Every structure is written in C-alpha cells, then in structure tokens.
Amino acid sequence: MLESYREEIIPEKWYNIIPDLPEPLPPPLDRSKGRSSIDLLNDIVPKEILKQEFSFSRYVDIPDEVREQYIQIGRPTPLVRARNLEKRLDYRGKIFFKFEGATVTGSHKINTAIPQAYYAAQEGSSGTVTETGAGQWGTATALASSLYSLPCTVFMVRISYQQKPGRKVIMNTYGADVIPSPSDMTGSGLKFFKENTNHPGSLGIAISEAVEYAMKKNLKYMIGSVLNSAITHQSIIGLETIKQLELEGEKADSLIGCVGGGSNFSGFVFPFLNDHEDMDIIASTAEEVPKFTRGEYKYDYIDSAGILPQLRMFSLGADFVPPKIYSGGLRYHGASPSLSLLVRNGRIKAEDVSQNEVIDALKIFAGTQGIIAAPESGHAIASALRYIKANKNEKKTVVVNVSGHGLLDLGIFEGKRE
Ligand SMILES: Cc1ncc(COP(=O)(O)O)c(C=O)c1O
C-alpha cells in the first residue's frame, strides 16, 4: 500500500471527457436579453479556464506549479481497502474507498480551486470571488487564493453562515472576506434582502451575487462545480485511483459516488469509462433533491437570477428551493451536462437515498474505518451498502469516493436538519 502514496501517482495531465462522450455535448445557451452571458464569462473567468471549458482535447497539461501545490495539500489522497467494513458486512468481495477528506481543506474542492487561482494570478487578476453553501467550496477557494496572494470574497448562503460558524472562521483564517447571502452588496442579493434581512438564501442566489460582484469589482469568479473545466480538474481523483488500483493488482467492478453539481463524481468516474466498459456505476443523490429521478433533462439556468448561460442538464428548476437537509453540498438544482448526458443514456445509474439511510451509513463507516465522512459522502457510502447487500454473493470489487470529512458537520449525528 505504501507504494501507492508516491508522488508519481499524481498524473501530469487532467482528463477531459468531452471528445469521448457517446454523443456531442449540447453547448451552453445564451438566453440573455442584454449582454451575452457567454461573453460575460470572458470577463470574469481566467482565459485559460475558458479555453479548458470549451476544449476538445482529451488531455490537458497540469502546470508543474499546480502539481507541486497538489503535493503540498495532501495529494495523492489515499485509496484504502476497507477491510473492517468488509468484515462487518460479511462481504466476500472487496471494498476500497478513495479519501478526498485527507486534503488539508477536507474535501475534493481544492483540486479545482488551486488551478483556477493559479490561472487567475498568472493573468494578473486583482482578486477572486465565489459563493459557498455548506462552506467546503468557499474554504478551498479561500486557501487557493491565499496560496497565490489573491484577495478573496465569499458569498455564503446565510442559513449556513449562521449555523456553521466554524466554516466562516476557517475562511477568515485563510484570509477571505465572508459575506452572508442574500446581501445588500449586489442587485441580485438586494432584491431578497429587502424582503427579509434574515433571508436564509440559496446557492442559486449566492452564485448570482458572486458573478455580479465579479463584474462590478473586476474580479475572477471561481467555479465550484457543474462546468466542464472544474470536472476536468477533478479527474485527478479517478486518474490517481486507476494507478493505485493497478499497484494493488486490482480492477474495479463498481464505482459509487455522490452528486451535488457533479464534480467529485465525474472526476472520480470519467477517467475509468473508456477502458472499463462492464462496470456498474452509481450516482447517489439526496431524496430531497432528486434531480435525476424526478428532474427534467432540459436547458436550464446555472444560477437563479439567470445571469449565467443555460446548460442542458437534469434539473429540478433554477428556482427550486431545496428542503433543509444537512448535506448542503447536494442541494444544487442541477447536475453537470456531461454527467447528465451519461445518466440519460443509461451508462450511469442514479439513485436517491434518505437522510436516515445516510446517517446509518455514516455511523457504520465511522465505527469500522474510524472516519467521520462528510454528510454528502454519506450518500455514496449508503448507496455502496445497498449495492453490497444486493450483490452479497458476488465477489465484486467496489470502489467508493468519499469526497470529504465531516468533522465540521457533527450536527447531523444530533438529529439536526442543517
Ligand atoms: C464533501 C462534498 N462532497 C460532495 C459535494 C457535492 O459537490 P459535487 O457534486 O460538485 O462534487 C460537496 C459540495 O459542496 C462537498 O462539499
């Protein structure tokens, strides 16, 4: 196992699935009445990111400096054989988990925050801005911006801002300004703020605020998920896993992960797709946000104010207000276009799990492997437990992506809903 922790495990190129999709990806759609929303991206996103967003190259070079930062923040992350869990479940096959919670910010989000901040700094940007729900993405953005000495502003969904003060402290410690959203600092926020100064907010509103603020202050907007460039960066998860399995002499039969906007799941799964045709692949979502099972495959807005382009994806509607659940990272209304396309054509199966099932799964995982996984990752673990139960008599090798740790989310075990 030691061998698979070597720095050489970290690939030199990211993988971009676009040329390998079974059909062309429907392009983003500009529905803006005034200025083109696609043009807008040109101003607020680093040029290199935009190039990657629309790239048809299968591989994208990871700059040496980014690769070095990956090492600094804890990559490669461990791939662990979950022997205790296998024993507890009396499973005759093998269970592995890739642990993205081992990065210094505690989740996979840092994998894309670093290159985005790097390109922003290279292009002479004066700072970064983004939104965050539960706080994982904001935390990653805050650290990545600090690594490149970029001032950083984070619009944090107000309900999370109030209920997860620890996250705010961490972002502040990394040097970021954190603003509860909706705020009175942008037009998109003010609309809701005027109605109710204690408005709980939503990810859709916070995205609109961050984008508007980027335009107003000439900052670079950091993309947390959904868009293709972020998914390309996250391919580091799957590429490392493939190498680590090879070193173990193993081959995956099944891949399981959780889906918010789709970045950790796609980053984990996409690099496997070409060479591993017979695998079972399961995308796990929250019962309260059933984008694949109850959503529609259609063009819909990325953000609730409709500032950004529309994407063809599974969506519950850009104005969907998710019920309060602890897994803040899974409350997004849609899922990335490439992942949506593969779910629609049946290559990837999707299923919803209940919060109770998630809590049970998190407890079993904690009690066997010792890891308090993030509530979002608990969905992947719950789906894995279901899968193993259904395939009890087969000796499959199941690989689960555990996207983050849950050490700042302990309220879920006390019965809190958020
Ligand atoms: C730990 C963790 N897992 C999963 C997600 C879901 O996002 P995505 O589907 O983009 O990976 C989040 C989002 O905040 C998260 O923090």
Helices and strands, in order, run as EHHEHEHEHEHEHHEHHEHEHEHEEHEHHE
CATH class of the largest domain: Alpha Beta
How many structural domains does the protein architecture include?
A: 2
Profile the largest sheet: 6 strands, mixed
Instruction: Please bin the fraction of helical residues.
Output: 25-40%
CATH topology of the largest domain: Rossmann fold
Number of helices: 16
Arrangement of strands in the largest sheet: 3-4-14-9-10-13
Overall geometry comes to globular
Mean pLDDT: 94
Query: In percent, how much strand structure appears in the residues?
Result: 15-25%
CATH architecture of the largest domain: 3-Layer(aba) Sandwich
What binds here, in terms of ligands, is: pyridoxal-5'-phosphate
What keyword list fits this structure?
alpha/beta, 14 strands, Rossmann fold, 2 domains, 418 residues, 16 helices, binds pyridoxal-5'-phosphate
Outline the fold blueprint.
Blueprint: E1 13-15, H1 37-44, H2 47-53, E2 59-61, H3 64-72, E3 79-81, H4 83-89, E4 94-99, H5 110-122, E5 128-132, H6 136-147, E6 152-157, H7 158-163, H8 165-173, E7 177-181, H9 187-195, H10 203-217, E8 220-221, H11 228-248, E9 254-258, H12 263-269, E10 280-286, H13 291-294, E11 296-301, E12 310-315, H14 337-344, E13 349-353, H15 355-369, H16 375-390, E14 397-402
Parallel strand pairs: 4-14, 5-6, 5-8, 6-7, 9-10, 9-14, 10-13
Antiparallel strand pairs: 1-2, 3-4, 11-12
